[in-house]
Structures are given as C-alpha cells and as structure tokens.
Amino acid sequence: xxxxxxxxxxxxxxxxxxxxxxxxxxxxxxxxxxxxxxxxxxxxxxxxxxxxxxxxxxxxxxxxxxxxxxxxxxxxxxxxxxxxxxxxxxxxxxxxxxxxxxxxxxxxxxxxxx
Length: 114
Fold this sequence. Notes:
The protein is of the alpha+beta class.
C-alpha cells in the first residue's frame, strides 16, 4: 500500500486459463475506490475489505445483491455521496457493475483488497 493513500486497491486475478475461452489468466479486473465510499458500501450491505482473500464465487452473490439494491434506490445512495465530491454514486456504479461481472465470470479468481 502506498503511504498516504486514500483509496482501496482491489484486484481480481485468475490463476488458471478460462475453460471456455482459454484466456483471462492473470489480472482480470482492478480498481481503486476512495475510502469516502465506505458508508455507501455499508448501506448496500458489504464491506469491501471483507472481500480480501475470497474467490469470485464467494464475492459474486454479495455484489449481485448490493448492485441490485443500489440500482433500485439511487436516491438513497446519492444521499451518501462524499461532500467533497470524491466518491459519488454516479462515479462508482460502473465500476461496481464491472467488478460484479468480473467475479461472476471468473468464480475461481482471487480477490485482493488492500
């Protein structure tokens, strides 16, 4: 972790080639959401740090429910936008959808959150 960093580092890594396509060995997704999003994540029912060391198969159902909850009530989650503008519902949703899709598509992948 970089000293003074104000964000999480999330990486989804596949250690074996995808049986369907033979690709995707290695890093399949990464993003660095700001700590300012913690209240939003908690309201959606997850703590990002809890995903550390889990597999895609373990994370996918949690993210599926969380993303659906956030999409169903955007006003609730926009109310949790960081006052300084660093961490908003509109900015994070595309990444959460991609994160959900990556762990769903790669159930054997390792998730690392630092």
